[in-house]
Amino acid sequence: MKTSKPIVAGIDVGGARKGFHGVALVGGVYQTQLHTMDAAATARWLREIGAQVIGVDAPCRWSLDGRARPVERELMGQGIQCFASPTREVAVRHPRNYYSWMLNGEALYQAIEPSHPLCAGLPLRQGQACCFETFPHAVSCALTGHLVSAKHKRVVRRVVLAQAGIFSPELRNIDWIDAALCALAAHRLAAGQPCHAYGEPVTGLIITPQV
Q1: pLDDT tens for residues 118-140?
Q2: How many domains is the chain partitioned into structurally?
Q3: H or E, element range at 209
Q4: Model pTM above 0.70
Q5: Is residue 106 in some structural domain?
Q6: How would you classify the pairing of strands 195-200 and 29-36?
Q7: Angle, in degrees to the nearest 10, between helices 174-190 and 136-144
Q8: Percentage with pLDDT > 70 across the chain
Q9: Is residue 1 assigned to a domain?
Q10: 21 in helix, strand or coil?
Q11: 8 A C-beta contact, residue 165 and residue 187
């Protein structure tokens, strides 16, 4: 895919039954999408489309002490509810594999970080290739300018995408919608538009756009 406009992607990470949903934007406009159960296949797709910046809806690092990571505590302190990441040992040993989606996220980061290092701070250099953790609910709150209810996430998030000019009948369920929101965050970051980084680099940042 050859273009002078920045190519970015967003990945919604699920567990064993959902896998990975990816949406690519070119210059902020919907381009294509992918669904696969395999982290390595997702990474190949990202390389094939030439994605420069990749937003991922999954924890980029594990908790160091068993408590919620600083980034998660910061979000919750602002009223933005989110999952608390466990230590890796807790995730692996969970009897019902509850954290399989976080382990899938770990596999994806390991596959893409050699070519797209994890973002450690803002702003990005122009043309810098990177991946970063983002969170569709926080993106929605940021772009609407207020806390929104996750109960109405399908409607609210579609409106956020529409207001950003992102339309496609292929974005037909919440997994695609969330992947597109991650891609929207990646587009804003790649374009040098205002973004905010929650947390700290050791246990991971969550980056969202700002209005």
Answers
A1: 999 999 999 999 999 999 999 99
A2: 1
A3: strand 204-209
A4: yes
A5: yes
A6: unpaired
A7: 60
A8: 99
A9: no
A10: strand
A11: no
